[in-house]
Amino acid sequence: VSGNLDLGRVSSLVSTRANQRLELTSVEEELRNGAPEAPGGPPVRSLKRLSEATNGVYGIWLIAGTPGIGKSTLVGQLEVDCGRNLPILAYDYENTKQVLLYRLVENFGLEQARRLGSKWYIRESLRTMQKDLERVPPPAIVVVDSIQKIPTFGASSDDKRGSLEDWIHRFEELKQRGYSVVLISEINRASYTGDPRLDCFKETGALEYAADTAVFLQERDNGLIATWIVKNRHYPTKGMLGLMERVKPYWFKEINLDGPTFG
């Protein structure tokens, strides 16, 4: 596939669809049939504690942590769990399609991997996103690994920051249309140690404001990974959620937790 993503056309498409819903209704009318459901999305069934704290994958999620800690593993786990309910559009600048397919087969075997991947689409660039969204309407999940690797064309650091913020605003527009967006984020070196904070995300502060849920992975002794929730817009749970360990090459298990942990 060749060509560039026309961001102007994406914005135009979003605006056109928004204008189709210009009917003005009061709150009383909106609530005529009762209260809406609580904000939430498909459950992360293999990570029950995380799923219950966030009510599933909804809105814009950020996954952060030091290099090599397992961010892509966690996101792959979200894709497997959520892909049982919704289509997944995965744009990966870190790993080739071959690597991602290999990991899936390593975890599940070929036949189960094929079944789990029936609604899972992998791209290596966002340049096809516009056409992909036309083929995969909401509700669906858009995954980007990582947000800082999206090509930007400004010559200066300020230009690059502006371009990233422009992308973040477009992801917010996708959320308004009914998509959920999962973004892997790099962090600043100053955040490699100490308790995670919301300002750890690299390059742009817009990520802090856009996120509905921000999850930070932190290495502990004996290869364990601490899961922190540093932002949880719709629910009260924040802080260190618990510990995880690897039970497969590319799969985490929450420690001391009953229920399904794999598959």
Topology of helices and strands:
Blueprint: H1 7-19, H2 27-30, H3 48-54, E1 60-65, H4 71-82, E2 88-92, H5 97-108, H6 110-116, E3 120-123, H7 129-135, E4 141-145, H8 157-177, E5 180-185, H9 206-210, E6 213-219, E7 225-232, E8 239-248, E9 251-254
Helix pairs in contact: 1-8, 5-6
Care to give the gist of this entry?
This protein has 263 residues and is α/β, with parallel strands linked by helices. It is 33% helix and 21% strand.
Sketch the major β-sheet.
9 strands, mixed
Taken as a percent bin, the fraction of beta residues is 15-25%
Quaternary class: single chain
Side by side, the strands of the main sheet go: 3-2-4-5-1-6-7-8-9
Distance between the termini: 33 Å
Q: Using DSSP, what is the number of strands?
A: 9
Helicity level: 25-40%
Number of helices: 9
Order of helices and strands: HHHEHEHHEHEHEHEEEE
Describe what this molecule looks like in 3D.
- The protein has 263 residues and is α/β, with parallel strands linked by helices.
- 33% of the residues lie in helices and 21% in strands.
- The protein contains nine helices and nine strands.
- It has a nine-stranded mixed sheet, sandwiched between helices.
- Strand 6 and strand 7 form a beta hairpin.
- Helix 1 runs parallel beside helix 8 and helix 5 crosses helix 6.
- The protein is globular, with a radius of gyration of 19 Å.
- It starts with 6 loop residues before the first helix and ends in a 9-residue tail after the last strand.
- The C terminus is likely disordered.
